[in-house]
Design brief:
Elements lengths: L3 H5 L3 E4 L11 E20 L10 E21 L4 H11 L4 E9 L5 E8 L13 H10 L1 E2 L2 E2 H15 L6 H16 L4 H5 L22 H13 L18
Antiparallel strand pairs: 1-3, 2-3, 2-4, 4-5, 6-7
Helix pairs in contact: 3-5, 4-5
């Protein structure tokens, strides 16, 4: 069965931070892979999820880097509720903006356009670069309504280790080591920091079946839907059973 028409009219979102392990919205399916031209950095401040106004946490954003590769998780949007939810979570509360890039399956021979959420130095929460030791210290000391900043970092690192073992992310993995060291040195309770909760991660086992990168029809469809509907995209594809995150 040829699924190309099925995927041409679909909308995909790429997650590289907490979306990897907690999307929080219904989706049709998800798969792992990567995007190019960026690196993942803990340079964005956060006062609404993993920190407070008085003590902002640090969360991931994407920084342009010509040879960079960022591994994460792509979600095929199921209905018209996902983008308003993400608009509030990522943009209104988090300070991110949206753009479109190309997502590659982990084997690298299939690609699709995806929406990504990026924080830049023009938003009020931006913290920017700092010595990794200082970033690790800040993460280990901050928490917010969604939980401790340590949970955000370690769940992201664990997701990459488990589902994308081929990924190399020096920034993320160095912060993981430094934060774990601080937890041990300060006799902090890891179970408490992690929230003592489990997340069921549902991933697509099969290759996504879409057109190659040099066919820009899909990209144009996604961009047009974004402009025309302003985060109210309604899938034109017949629905299947919803897949949602189980907590």
């Amino acid at each position: 069965m040829d699924n190309r028409n099925h995927d041409e009219n679909s909308l995909w979102v790429f997650g590289y931070g907490s979306l990897c392990w907690y999307p929080g919205f219904h989706y049709k399916r998800s798969t792992v892979g990567y995007i190019r031209g960026f690196s993942r950095k803990f340079w964005q401040g956060n006062t609404t999820h993993r920190g407070t106004t008085e003590k902002p946490g640090r969360v991931a954003t994407l920084v342009e880097e010509k040879e960079g590769v960022v591994y994460g998780r792509a979600f095929q949007v199921q209905d018209n509720a996902a983008l308003p939810y993400l608009q509030n979570r990522e943009c209104t509360l988090g300070g991110y903006i949206t753009t479109i890039t190309t997502f590659y399956s982990r084997e690298g021979y299939r690609s699709i356009p995806v929406i990504i959420y990026i924080a830049t130095n023009k938003n009020e929460h931006w913290l920017g670069d700092a010595p990794l030791y200082n970033i690790a210290k800040q993460i280990s000391e901050c928490s917010g309504p969604s939980g401790h900043n340590v949970e955000y970092l370690l769940r992201l690192a664990e997701f990459i280790h488990r589902y994308l073992p081929e990924a190399h992310d020096e920034h993320l993995f160095t912060l993981e080591i430094l934060v774990r060291s601080r937890i041990k040195e300060n006799n902090m309770c890891l179970t408490t920091l992690m929230g003592d909760r489990d997340f069921d991660i549902d991933l697509e086992d099969n290759e996504i079946d879409v057109r190659d990168e040099d066919d820009d029809l899909v990209s144009n469809n996604v961009a047009n839907n974004l402009r025309d509907n302003s985060f109210q995209f309604i899938s034109q594809v017949p629905g299947r059973a919803l897949r949602c995150l189980k907590i």
